[in-house]
Amino acid sequence: MPVRSEKPLHIGVFGGTFDPPHVGHLVTAVNVGHALALDRVLLMVANVPWQKVGSRPITPAVDRLAMVRAAVADVARLEAGDHEIRAGGPSYTADTLACLADEHPGAVLYTIVGDDAAAKIHTWERVDEVLALSRMVVVDRPGEHIELDVLHPAIDWIRVEVPHLEVSSTDLRERCADGRPLDYLVPDPVLDVIRARGLYGVVVPA
Ligand code: ATP
Ligand code: MG
Predict the structure, then answer these.
(1) What's the whole-model pTM score?
(2) Which of 141, 145, 167, 186 to mutate to test the pocket of ligand 1 (most atoms within 8 A of CB)?
(3) CB of 24 closer than 6 A to ligand 1?
(4) Mean pLDDT, residues 17-29
(5) Span 43-78, pLDDT tens digits
(6) What whole-number distance in Å separates Cα of residue 196 and Cα of residue 174?
(7) Beta carbon of 83 within 6 Å of any ligand 1 atom
(8) What fold characterizes domain 10-200?
């Protein structure tokens, strides 16, 4: 029997709609990756973000994936995850983690969330499977401080400090709609994709 001497891969899974991706996502992913010495952090693009459907129009998954790919292209450790898009249908982290565990036998998986998402973890599909398959990582988001111990005492959260950037995709979509600039809030290559594809009502250059 061959002895496997390689260290297990440590992979962070940072799921989101990324509609669009912004500096808050990227600074979080890079800093969690560094703090926990992860080999890679996947920005996992939801195919159908079932909790958001019906509340607002969602940009097609292929466009959101193109923006995330553009955002991480030159950043060590960060990768765009297209697993949920390839799987199709509504996206559940439990399924994504099972898929990654098959793809990378022996890997140590981490589910990374902002504290607003952490506070709603009881609403996730099959959260028991998520907890069984991964270690849970939470970062503070600017705004209301969320006491995770009270909300979900069973989870042994790994809390990582990252720079607080008060940016949200909701705000960015509103900025686009009324013509305010997105410069410095999203990386330039993401802006290029937004312009080239005419996303968020941005006028495509002639
Ligand atoms: P929306 O406003 O459309 O909900 P969002 O900015 O919250 O978009 P999502 O795609 O919903 O982005 O979030 C994906 C993940 O990123 C979630 O875990 C969320 O908590 C986290 N996140 C989003 N923005 C930040 C931020 N500024 N700092 C830290 N984490 C963030
Ligand atoms: Mg959100």
Answers:
(1) 0.94
(2) 141
(3) yes
(4) 98
(5) 999 999 888 888 899 999 999 999 999 999 989 999
(6) 19
(7) no
(8) Rossmann fold (3.40.50)
